[in-house]
TrEMBL record, chain A:
The keyword Secreted does not apply. The keyword Membrane applies. The chain crosses the membrane at residues 63-88, 100-117, 137-156, 168-188, 208-234. Pfam families: CbtA (PF09490). This is CbtA family protein. InterPro entries: CbtA_put. It comes from the Bacteria. Keywords: Membrane, Transmembrane, Transmembrane helix. It comes from Paraconexibacter antarcticus.
From TrEMBL, chain B:
InterPro entries: CbtB_put. The chain crosses the membrane at residues 23-42. This is CbtB-domain containing protein. It comes from the Bacteria. Pfam families: CbtB. Keywords: Membrane, Transmembrane, Transmembrane helix.
């Protein structure tokens, strides 16, 4: 069962990666090019020698982008399938497709959207090469904190659902999530590395495109995985027996 | 009619589908392999470098930026 779910998750992730590539190519690449043009302009002004690329821009924006989004899709799809295999039947009493869709929504919010409010995606030339170690660490730390805060909030909701009622338990859970994330965002250092003169419109559109690419990935994974897993779960031997027994009764 | 009802009932959650014991080997093995994949797209030849040079970095350069990973 886990094996079949994992394979399906990775295949669904492959599809998600291809769709994310299409979105990224259409909406993200023009902004990446604007940012690189700005970088070249600044370098030329500073009198620096033109940096020769190992891999041409033409390859980077097509094959390279596709490899990147597909690899990411397969990885996220596979890990999503494993989390689904654990969560289904344990977290709430949602059906297969609802569990898949809600899990993907939670993944988008906790892995992309909320960490993005602290450390947003940045185009080329925004970001100092000397601080890459620190920024990478902070980026993954913010994601880890947000995911753990969401898991803690989920526990609070289930723990207090009976005592406080579903609404109040959900509000308490939301409060726990917001408090943990807000505290982390206040404590973690800010990153201000946008060079002077960088076009604000390009930055805005680049970041919007980045959110759209991740949304494409998670939307595809959440909906397509739900569709393919539903048949698999329904066809499980133990469940088929239960179904027949139900039909006979 | 009863067939249709049975089909709908199949969607009802009947508890977990995988025991932790069943999940563990997949979570460890596939988890590590898939995390490596994320690492190569997101951070190789950036904060860390396993292969050296900058060909992986350059190949997935645009995806790295657009997927939100820190770069440069």
């Amino acid at each position: 069962m886990v094996r079949s779910l994992l394979i399906r998750g990775m295949l669904v992730g492959l599809l998600a990666g291809v769709l994310a590539f299409a979105f990224a190519y259409a909406f993200g690449e023009p902004q990446v090019q604007h940012a690189i043009d700005f970088e070249d302009l600044m370098a030329a002004k500073a009198g620096a020698a033109h940096e020769h690329a190992l891999i041409s821009r033409g390859t980077q924006r097509t094959v390279g982008l596709l490899i990147g989004t597909v690899a990411m899709g397969v990885a996220l799809g596979g890990m999503f399938a494993l989390v689904f295999a654990y969560a289904y039947g344990r977290v709430g009493s949602f059906g297969v497709r609802a569990t898949s869709a809600l899990l993907a929504l939670a993944a988008y919010v906790t892995i992309t959207l909320v960490p993005f409010t602290k450390y947003p995606a940045s185009p080329p030339s925004v970001g100092n090469a000397d601080t890459i170690d620190r920024r990478t660490l902070l980026f993954f730390a913010m994601i880890a904190i947000t995911v753990l805060a969401a898991i803690a909030a989920g526990r609070v909701r289930r723990e207090y659902a009976e005592r406080l009622g579903p609404w109040n338990a959900a509000i308490a859970a939301g409060a726990v999530f917001v408090l943990v994330v807000a505290a982390a965002q206040l404590i973690l250092p800010a990153v201000h590395e946008t060079p002077a003169g960088f076009p604000a419109d390009v930055l805005y559109r680049f970041r919007l495109a980045s959110l759209g690419i991740s949304a494409t990935l998670w939307l595809t994974i959440g909906l397509a995985f739900g569709a393919t897993a539903e048949r698999l779960v329904a066809a499980q031997p133990g469940r088929a027996r239960a179904r027949r027994a139900g039909a006979a009764a | 009619m009863s067939e249709a009802v049975a089909e709908r009932n199949a969607g009802v959650v009947e508890g977990p589908i995988a025991s932790p014991r069943e999940l563990m080997p997949y979570a460890i093995f596939a988890g590590v392999v898939l995390m490596m994949l994320v690492y190569f797209v997101g951070a190789e030849e950036g904060a860390l470098s396993l292969i050296g040079g900058s060909s992986v970095h350059e190949l997935v350069h645009d995806a790295r930026h657009l997927l939100g990973f820190p770069c440069h």
